[in-house]
Design a protein that fits this description.
Two copies of one chain form a homodimer. Chain A is of the alpha+beta class and 138 residues long. Chain A has one domain: Orthogonal Bundle (Arc Repressor Mutant, subunit A), CATH 1.10.10.10. Chain A is 28% helix and 28% strand. Chain A has a three-stranded antiparallel beta sheet with strand order 1-3-2. The longest helix of chain A is centred in the middle third of the chain and has 13 residues. The radius of gyration of chain A is 16 Å and the shape is globular. Chains A and B meet through strand 5 and strand 6 of A and strand 5 and strand 6 of B. Chain A binds a DNA duplex (30 and 30 nucleotides) through helix 4.
Chain lengths: 138, 138
Amino acid sequence: MQTIEEVLESKDIRVTAMRLLIYKFLAEKEVAVTLTDIESAFAKAERTTLYRTLKTFEEKKIVHQIDDGTGISKYALCEKGCNCEIEQDLHLHFHCNNCNETVCLTEHKIPQIKVPDGFVSENVNLVVKGICDKCSGQ
Amino acid sequence: MQTIEEVLESKDIRVTAMRLLIYKFLAEKEVAVTLTDIESAFAKAERTTLYRTLKTFEEKKIVHQIDDGTGISKYALCEKGCNCEIEQDLHLHFHCNNCNETVCLTEHKIPQIKVPDGFVSENVNLVVKGICDKCSGQ
DNA sequence: GTCAATAATGCACTTCCGTTGCACTAACTA
DNA sequence: TAGTTAGTGCAACGGAAGTGCATTATTGAC
């Protein structure tokens, strides 16, 4: 088991107290979080710092940004098996219309999508909306 | 061929000059447009009016809103065959990373997506990103 | 260890889009 | 034609993303 420090260092991310905290926060959450979520969890931290930390994490591929259609960017840690760079490896996201939470369904890969001639597919964003397992009472 | 007036009336939308113009504009565009697109096309019109007109059109199911991941809502006329209400009839959208335009691929239906037990799927948003036919030089 | 270079952080501020409240005007109905 | 209802225009708000700059922390060379 790698320590958080090791994870950051292996991705060429300078280790700071702030980044350790943010990483820890993301790791403990099972759902994708917004900038505002993190902001309210760390009352003492600046929005800008959080914002830029997430951008850094995203660039270094330890976090992926999720657009679930709410208009607000959410972020989630990439799992061990998550290779966000590779199209075929993209998983889908589920957005609950009840609790408003978004989760990664990493085991559910996106089926190959055919596009018409002349179109070149580089990336696919697939969000399923509905009621999550917690809210459906199961 | 129905006139625009007839289309609006059949959907219980009161006919006004503004609405006719906006409908015409949407009909002429092959791509999804933003509020700002329409605003700059009709310099004399108010943003609010356009905004509310689109909302009305959307409620009455003659326009559907598209979230292509740019963070800006886009709108497109529903085609004859487009039954936005019915999940199975949802088509996918293609967003060009080059020209930044989004088109409806109405002939491409979204495949049935399986979700884990306990999750209830109500809606699916599928956006393919890449290079469109115009930009790929074909 | 000290110091310079580089990166991270904090603060203030801006911009963009979506949205709402309210007054005014146009369209329909009796 | 009067009165009700719906549409439009103006002003303003709010949330989220993003930027510039000064300050602070971290790193690496000496």
